[in-house]
């Protein structure tokens, strides 16, 4: 890992506390949020102190561990954490692993540490595998934040970008601002700039114009849930980019760990999270729409597989089709 790399999730074994970078304060302040109880972790997930599918899963697993350490009701902790956010599948995957460990008489804390360690290695492997798709001199567009701040380290989409950069490829990154919470402007730009990777921020509605001008070579995004047929659920605005990339014949890649795949749900089973209208109506406390006007605030959208060039995982690169995805899991 680059010596300047951020550590968004830290477990303090001595104090038995979970330490999270408070992503609500970035990029202006690098502050930490201390979780001493599973309720603290639930708050951190719900209020987006921590966000990004893998990071949510790892944090939730430590939330379960905190309940175990304090001899609290494990099922209550499980249900509280499970109900924080509905779309990202890693949350449920990690909680189920911890609950299974508990039912089998194993330590939840050790399982959480294992999930944490696995996530770091997984993200590293996504970068090592995916960077082969990047050419020297590429300009890459990314959306939201699928970086170290969304995982335990490296990221998913940004891991691909990082390893291309680490391997000496002269790349440039363009980050969509990603309204309404501006994860691209505040988080992606922060962590890439922190490591010295060239990055520029654009408004979300600039992406199509840059594609039209021929200034985007590839698009790489993360994912919060991927169905067995390759349908991808990711931050709102992903679908729009995929449609634009198809029209302009630009490769559109999704980078995600196997834990983000949901092989059992159908599209009608997936709940698209709707968040508070205030996130759209206000920017940094300043209201930008007229009084009495409502807002839509969907947190995610759905991108069909025919708009996706390939999915980059820690076990290889696959086409977004049911046969290819199941073949990967059967390995």
SSE layout and pairing:
Layout: E1 9-12, E2 17-21, E3 32-35, H1 38-46, H2 53-69, H3 74-82, H4 89-103, H5 108-130, E4 139-142, H6 157-166, E5 172-176, H7 183-194, E6 199-202, H8 207-212, E7 218-221, E8 225-227, E9 232-235, H9 238-248, E10 252-255, E11 261-262, H10 278-281, E12 282-283, E13 286-287, E14 300-303, E15 310-313, E16 316-318, H11 322-330
Parallel strand pairs: 4-5, 4-7, 5-6, 7-10, 8-11, 10-15
Antiparallel strand pairs: 1-2, 2-3, 8-9, 9-14, 12-13, 15-16
Largest sheet: 7 strands, mixed
CATH-level-4 superfamily name of the largest domain: Translation initiation factor eif-2b, domain 2
Q: Would you tell me which CATH topology of the largest domain applies?
A: Rossmann fold
**Major sheet: order of its strands?**
6-5-4-7-10-15-16
What's the total count of β strands? 16
| CATH architecture classification of the largest domain | 3-Layer(aba) Sandwich
Low-pLDDT ranges: none
Q: Whole-number average pLDDT?
A: 95
Organism: Methanocaldococcus vulcanius (strain ATCC 700851 / DSM 12094 / M7)
GO biological process, one term: L-methionine salvage from methylthioadenosine
Function: Catalyzes the interconversion of methylthioribose-1-phosphate (MTR-1-P) into methylthioribulose-1-phosphate (MTRu-1-P).
Family: Belongs to the EIF-2B alpha/beta/delta subunits family. MtnA subfamily.
